[in-house]
Amino acid sequence: MILVTGSAGFIGANFVLDWLARHDEAVIGLDKLTYAGNLESLASVKNDPRHIFVHGDIGDAELTGQLLKQYRPRAIVNFAAESHVDRSIHGPEEFIQTNIVGTFHLLEAVRTYWSVLTDEEKTGFRFLHVSTDEVYGSLAKDEPAFGETHRYEPNSPYSASKAASDHLVRAYHHTYGLPVLTTNCSNNYGPYHFPEKLIPLMIVNALAGKPLPVYGDGQQIRDWLYVKDHCSAIRCVLEKGTPGEVYNVGGWNEKANLDIVHTVCALLDELSPRTDGKSYREQIAFVTDRPGHDRRYAIDARKIECELDWKPAETFETGIRKTVQWYLDNRDWVSNVQSGSYRQWLEKNYAGRGR
Ligand code: NAD
Ligand code: DAU
Questions:
Q1: Which ligand approaches the C-alpha of residue 297 most closely?
Q2: What 3-state DSSP class applies to 46?
Q3: Helix segments in the chain, DSSP class H
């Protein structure tokens, strides 16, 4: 079996669902169930005998040590993290605790477990660390996309904490020989995305008749990948990647934020028009920029494409249509994540931000 941390989050849940749809191999999911973890995203596999869910913290080495001993996974995919840049600006401490200290404790538990495996099991074992393109910092308009050897230049507490975790993972390979793999992916979108991030926030706010807050001039560029393509890339790296190597994952889909918001509005105008006949674009509101806002991210995905023969299945046009339709079809999931703490977060991040 494999162990998946952060399995109740956006990408982790998509990964578990896709894994169980494709493999007979069981999954043990470990998640702290922070505000971002949601067992409703895993409801369809709740009673699947191949799926075991454990509520716990990657930083609890006693728990992870016990799980590793009991279930003897052949691989670990580490998604668990604090993942929202804006939250890291308002309160960085949790990011240090989970992304750095938590990853360290997880690595220690894994090293202890791995060191007593048989030689054959040791060689076959994999620790796949899921990281982000944000560790490379920000690109100017005409700079080439991030390759795997691009310098690390993280700019937010979130990206700095992810960069630190990448370095720890690398060190455990070089020092102890742990067979690690690291993936650095660009912005994901798709089903089960918590509506604090750009695309789901725009869909949810539009349908609720609320403003669509665009930071600064809306010309910041992100490189978008449909979440199921990220999951297929991780399966591919797990199967074919070389231990110690880093693979950048992206779909060559650079878009300015304002263009993303316009696309979401156009799809909603088509699929769920406003009752007054006007476009959802009317709800766009330019607000004060994110402090230290990275201007552009772009991934050079040639290594994973050429060496591992991976390609995304979706274009941005097919993926964003599926995503908008998913939010229209899953209004219960959306309303159930809009708790009191979610509303408090919106108040904290957006109140007083008007321009
Ligand atoms: P998410 O915030 O939706 O989910 C994170 C999950 O981790 C949640 O279920 C949360 O409960 C869990 N978690 C947090 N702290 C934990 C801890 N101490 N122990 C156990 N579980 C804990 O994040 P996501 O968007 O699904 O991102 C998953 C991973 O992928 C992260 O490592 C992130 O850095 C990386 N990543 C995300 C994107 C993206 O666009 N979302 C892109 C590239 C890389
Ligand atoms: O690049 C990969 C990263 O993508 C991941 O590592 C992170 O975990 C993930 O959250 C995401 O980070 P971003 O900061 O790029 O994503 P977010 O959805 O928060 O913002 C996308 C862009 O949209 C960014 O330029 C900020 C802007 N934005 C965001 C929000 C929430 C707005 O203009 N308005 C908003 O309300």
A1: 2
A2: coil
A3: 10-22, 61-71, 85-90, 93-95, 103-115, 119-124, 157-176, 198-207, 227-240, 257-271, 302-308, 316-329, 331-337, 340-350
Q: Is the CB of 213 under 6 A from ligand 2?
A: yes
| Strand order across the beta sheet in which 75-78 lies | 51-55, 27-31, 2-5, 75-78, 126-132, 180-185, 246-249
**Nearest 5 degrees, angle CA 16-CA 19-CA 23?**
145
Angle between helices 198-207 and 257-271 (to 10 degrees): 40
- Residue 116 three-state SS: coil
Question: How distant, in Å, are the alpha carbons of 10, 37, 67 from that of 341?
Answer: 18, 13, 31
- Convert the pLDDT of each residue in 198-209 to its tens digit: 999 999 999 999
pLDDT in tens, 168-227: 999 999 999 999 999 999 999 999 999 999 999 999 999 999 999 999 999 999 999 999
The strands making up 187-189's β-sheet, listed across from edge to edge, are: 187-189, 221-226, 254-256
Q: Looking at the domain that runs over 2-187+227-252+292-313, which CATH code has it been given?
A: 3.40.50.720
Q: Which residues are catalytic, by number? A: 133-134, 158
The answer to whether the CB of 220 is under 6 A from ligand 2 is yes
Report the relative pairing of strands 221-226 and 254-256 from DSSP bridges: antiparallel
Domain ranges of the chain: 2-187+227-252+292-313
